[in-house]
Amino acid sequence: MTTHDDYLRGVLKGDRRGIARAITLVESTRPDHRELAQRLLVELTPHAGKARRVGVSGVPGVGKSTFIEALGTSLTARGHRVAVLAVDPSSKRSGGSILGDKTRMARLSADRNAFIRPSPTAGTLGGVATATREAMVVVEAAGYDIVLVETVGVGQSETAVADMVDTFLLLTLARTGDQLQGIKKGVLELADVIAVNKADGEHEQAARKAASELAGALRLLRSSTPVLTCSGMTGAGLEELWIQVVRHQEGVDLAAKRSRQQVEWTWALVRDRLLARLGEKAAPIAPAIERQVLDGALTPSLAADRILEAFLPERETPSG
Ligand SMILES: Nc1nc2c(ncn2[C@@H]2O[C@H](COP(=O)(O)OP(=O)(O)OP(=O)(O)O)[C@@H](O)[C@H]2O)c(=O)[nH]1
């Protein structure tokens, strides 16, 4: 049986197998594992926090794997240690699109200064995001000084990733017509740096034009988010892009941003767990109450009180 000290030593030694085992532990939902994981995280935390944390987002097909492989190898070539984590609540880990999948980043996964971990499969976004945040503590304590967190450009996972990184990078593609139309507005607000990817060969001109249009549109929105072009395939623009990432981090109060993220994360966990427990407690009475609402015997407001009464020992609900 692996003890607390084994996990701790494995991670601090920076040994890949030890890191992988510790991440498996923090991803586990078994109560005894959770307890061991939290003890481990408390001890690892003082060793963590020294990495640059960068989120990488973009719709499927934008070229994230190729991009991360190219950026990651250029960073390890400059002496960095790069960890790639992922948040993809839909991942099944058996075929299909699994973020952070090693087979999609063959060069980087063979690089001894890189560590790639696919998205945990815990199910809910909250669960997956929590496991990834905890994995970030593990890889940082193990000495990785750059953490790239990949996410799919769909659903709420981008917000979850933006909440755990210092800089959120949005990859997009050149499109004809209105550049903003193809990008969800909320995601634009999350982005600290935007890059029009696949700016190579015959696409290069279109990518440049798209980037300048997008920059113009952002200026109208009073945003100063830098917009660049790059190519994961040729490596063009990656150096300038990394300069912008570093510049962004130098321009914000990182300590304050991370403190805010920790507190927000705490409350997000409270909400998640409260809802989960409420769901468990309410499960036996829920069908009957729902039926009464549908029959008109209960108003939704009274029904909500009934459900909360099953959860709270005494009537402490804020409503009426
Ligand atoms: N021309 C060009 N093609 C690229 C570039 N990057 C990726 N591609 C191609 O675009 C397709 C998708 O690239 P992937 O790197 O797998 O990325 P993705 O589709 O975002 O996929 P996931 O990482 O699975 O989300 C592949 O056919 C790549 O060969 C690039 O910089 N230039």
Walkthrough of the structure:
One of its GO terms (molecular function) is GTP binding. Belongs to the SIMIBI class G3E GTPase family. ArgK/MeaB subfamily. It comes from Planotetraspora silvatica. This is ATPase/protein kinase. The chain has 320 residues and is α/β, with parallel strands linked by helices. 51% of the residues lie in helices and 11% in strands. It has helices at residues 4-12, 16-27, 31-44, 64-77, 106-109, 125-141, 157-162, 185-190, 204-220, 238-251, 254-282, 286-295, 300-311; strands spanning 52-58, 82-87, 114-116, 146-152, 167-172, 193-196, 227-229. It has a seven-stranded parallel beta sheet, sandwiched between helices. β2, α5 (106-109) and β3 form a beta-alpha-beta unit. α1 crosses α2 and α2 packs antiparallel against α6. Bound molecules: guanosine-5'-triphosphate. Guanosine-5'-triphosphate binds next to α4.
Based on the model shown, name its key terms.
alpha/beta, 13 helices, globular, binds guanosine-5'-triphosphate
The fraction of residues assigned to DSSP E strands is: 5-15%
The H-and-E topology, N to C, reads as HHHEHEHEHEHEHEHEHHHH
Shape: globular
Task: List all distinct small molecules, including ions and cofactors, that are bound in this structure.
Answer: guanosine-5'-triphosphate
Q: How would a textbook summarize the main sheet?
A: 7 strands, parallel
Question: Mind telling me the C-alpha Rg?
Answer: 22 Å
Number of strands: 7
Tally of DSSP helical segments = 13
Mean pLDDT level: 88
Class derived from helix and strand content: alpha/beta
Termini separation: 53 Å
List segments where confidence is low: pLDDT < 50 over at least 5 consecutive residues.
none
Oligomer: single chain
Family: Belongs to the SIMIBI class G3E GTPase family. ArgK/MeaB subfamily.
GO molecular function: GTP binding; GTPase activity; kinase activity
Protein name: ATPase/protein kinase
Pfam families: MeaB (PF03308)
